[in-house]
Amino acid sequence: MKASRVSVVGGVAASAVLLLSVPAFAHVSVSAEGEAAKGGYATVNFKVPNEMDDASTNKLEISFPEDHPLASVMTQPVPGWTAKVTKTKLDKPLEMHGEKIDEAVSKVTWTADGKGVQPGSFQKFPLSIGALPEDADELVFKAVQTYDNKEVVRWIEPQQKGQEEPEHPAPALALTAPSEGHGAAASHDDAKDDAKSGDKSESAASDSSDSTARVLGIVGIVVGAAGVAFGVLAGRRRVTS
Q1: Model-level pTM?
Q2: 33 partner at 20 to 30 Å CA-CA among 78, 138, 159, 220?
Q3: CA-CA distance, 13 to 2, in Å (whole number)?
Q4: 91-131 pLDDT tens trace
């Protein structure tokens, strides 16, 4: 009898722990395709799972960090969803590619045209963002998930170092060290060097062909002259005989 009670209590406790652990695996998150290097650009995906059994997610709002504004944000079409990009004026303009930028993206909102994210499924919402800050190790976004039953879940709580994950953690994107040699610039320089090498090779090949043609031309002239001389001598011999 006592053993049965212990089993029941143990089973209830295990179920409670499992239920408490589920939200940690089902929150809105963000991750980069490849790496998100400081000072560069990255393609990121906001992953939105559906936590309900009787409702679908039909709206997602992602608010961008104000302390590290991003001037370039581009959406990728997601079937069944409409994206809206909201921009705001900056108190301090940014400089990008030698130009002053006085506004940045503050929010991107996706609204479902159809059924949305149904129970038991998830959806990824991709963005191309940049230039990423050079003085930060991560970017923290705020996500608001709305269901078609009007319930709203706000994933806006930042993760504090040394503390347990909050109930509704905000999506955080880890930034990596800048690429060595400034990636694109180095590739561009390499391409230019390859082009120069190719031009030199073509020039050398052209010079070699010209020299060969000259030699063959001279040989042809000499052979031709020898032939003419031989013909003249043969003619004289016939006349003499």
Answers
A1: 0.65
A2: 159
A3: 16
A4: 887 776 677 888 899 999 999 999 999 999 999 999 999 99
User: For 94, how many CA atoms within 13 A lie in the half-sphere containing its CB?
Assistant: 20
Q: Which residue has the tokens 């939105």?
A: 48
Cβ atoms 50, 118 nearer than 8 A:
yes
| Bridge partners for 169 per DSSP | 157
Residue 186: C-alpha distances to residues 1, 40, 179, 190 (Å):
75, 14, 10, 6
What are 106's two structure tokens?
């503050």
Residues 6+ apart with CB under 8 A from 69: 90, 94, 104, 105
Question: Other CB atoms closer than 10 Å to residue 164's CB: what's the count?
Answer: 8
- 71 preceded by a cis bond (ω within 30 of 0): no
Backbone angles phi, psi at 13, to 5 degrees: -65, -40
Task: Give the C-alpha distances (Å, rounded to integers) separating 25 from 19, 29, 123, 168, 172.
Answer: 11, 10, 15, 11, 15
Taking every pair of Cα atoms in the chain, the longest distance, rounded to a whole number of angstroms, is 144
Pair of tokens at residue 27? 């929150």
- Tracing tokens 């001389």 back to the chain, one arrives at 229
Q: Are 38 and 118 in contact (CB under 8 A)?
A: no
Cα separation, 134 vs 23, whole angstroms: 32
Report d(CA 9, CA 240) in Å as an integer: 136
Contact 74, 128 (CB under 8 A): yes
Higher-pLDDT residue of 40 and 181 is: 40
Cβ atoms within 10 Å of 47's Cβ, excluding its own: 14
